[in-house]
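Board notes (copied after class):
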Amino acid sequence: MGFKSVSLVVAGALVVAAVTLVFTGSVLLLDPHGQIASAQLSDGAGRKQPLLNLGYLRVEVPDIEGGVQITCKNGSVILRGYVSPGVQTWLEMHGTSGCATREL
C-alpha cells in the first residue's frame, strides 16, 4: 500500500471515530498542568464510570447521566459538567494550582 492509500484509510478512520462520538456522546477532560489525581463519571444513584487516562487528557463515552467527579492532587474533590449518553461534555482544568475547571 502506498502512502496515499494509507493516508486515506487513516483519514476515513478518524472521520468514523468523530461521527461515532457525536452520536454516542463523549466526555473530554483536558489537564494541561497535571492537576488531576483521578476523574470519574458519577450519578445520583452512586454508580461510577472512570475516565480513561491518556496523560494530559481523560476521555470516556458516558453510560450514565450525572456529572464529572474530579479529585485533584491537592486533595480537593469537585463535581462539574452535565454528562449523559449522546451529550458532549468537554472540560479543561484552569490555572496551575487549585482545582478549577472551565468548559471548552
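Comment from the instructor: The first helix runs from residue 3 to 24. The mean pLDDT is 89.
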